[in-house]
Amino acid sequence: MLLYDDGLFLMRNRLGLDVRRPLPNGFISHAHFDHMAKHQLVFCTPETAALYKLRMGKRPFRLLPFQESVDYSGVKLTTYPAGHMLGSAMLLVEQGGVRVLYTGDFQLRASLTCRQATIPRDVDILVMESTFGKPLYSFPDADESRSQLVNVVRGILLRGNCPIVEAYVAGKAQEITRILSDAGIGVVQHPEVFAISRLYEELGSNIGHFQEYEGHPVPGAAIIVPPSEQRGASIGDIYRQERVAVTGWAVRPDEARKRRVQHVVPLSDHADYNELLKIVELANPKIVLCTHGPREFCDVLVSRGYDARYLHRDTAYCPLEQ
């Protein structure tokens, strides 16, 4: 049922799952560049299609609204919210009595700007991202991290400095905008962030109050920019600035120095270690295939009685293939 060929495919119809090279048919779980490609036909949710068009250009789409099953070449496809960003989706694949859940990037915590994840139960095969698959990456409660972000930004403003918050332009930046806006802090956005935020609003996501950066700081406001390593992230020299990186990697020692920022806040749109364990418990699979994370996480699952394997080139055919 599954084939790994420099990316994961459904065998029956060669539908690629987040494969990063152009294909005749490709499912895209969400609109981050490391999951998108210029496929001839793109399978995704309507929200992801809108974000894809903004970021990658127009393509033919096969839209998969949440929990509305479609038949594609004899395979039943159903998307479920993944909680990662607006439009992000898990894909449930059903064929010959076998149920496969592909998570893409996900989190189980409730987001302020997209639908919370919904997990189908009792699947046969769970294909899951496991980015934060080490105990170190057990994040604080989401409200605690949000409060920490607000307090850090307020402290910078009280010192008379300009808070510059680094975040990925799609998803994380909109979540941060909502957090700061709800706290009564002004938000100014880098033009790349602003374009996506406007589309979020058009798609019905409330991300609070914000304005586009016009070359100068706004008193009492934070500026949200892409991470400094990304092209086009520069906003020019700003006197008396303090930078804040908002990332799950913030739990690592010395992360602020490594990123050359003054502050780090552990707030992620990925599942932490405990959520990775939780989704396996909820989905109750016969087989778990892990990807995009440490291989040691599979060992943890095996120690808990699961048949868990790391997905790589040697994973040719799924043993439950009908």
Rg over CA atoms: 20 Å
H/E series: EEEEEHEEEEEEHEHEHEEEHEHEHE
- Tell me the strand order in the biggest sheet: 7-8-9-10-11-18-19
Under CATH, the topology of the largest domain can be stated as Metallo-beta-lactamase, Chain A
| pLDDT averaged over residues | 93
Task: Return the structural class.
Answer: alpha/beta
Residue windows where pLDDT falls under 50 for at least 5 positions = none
How many helical stretches? 7
Number of β-strand runs: 19
Largest sheet: 7 strands, mixed
Distance between the termini: 7 Å
Q: Examine the secondary-structure arrangement and name the CATH architecture of the largest domain.
A: 4-Layer Sandwich
CATH class of the largest domain, named Alpha Beta
Number of domains: 2
Question: So what's the overall shape?
Answer: globular
- CATH fourth-tier homologous superfamily of the largest domain: Ribonuclease Z/Hydroxyacylglutathione hydrolase-like
Describe the structure in your own words:
The chain has 322 residues and is of the alpha/beta class. The chain has two domains: 2-136 and 270-310, Metallo-beta-lactamase, Chain A (4-Layer Sandwich); 142-265, 3-Layer(aba) Sandwich (Rossmann fold), CATH 3.40.50.10890. It contains seven helices and 19 strands. The protein has helices spanning 46-56, 142-158, 172-182, 191-202, 255-259, 273-283, 296-303; strands spanning 2-4, 8-10, 15-17, 25-27, 41-44, 61-63, 70-72, 75-81, 89-95, 98-102, 125-129, 162-166, 186-189, 211-212, 221-225, 241-246, 263-265, 287-291, 307-310. A seven-stranded mixed sheet has the order 7-8-9-10-11-18-19, with helices on one face. Strands 1-2-3-4-5-6 form a six-stranded mixed sheet. Strands 14-13-15-12-16-17 form a six-stranded parallel sheet. Strand 16, helix 5 (255-259) and strand 17 (263-265) form a beta-alpha-beta unit. The mean pLDDT is 93.
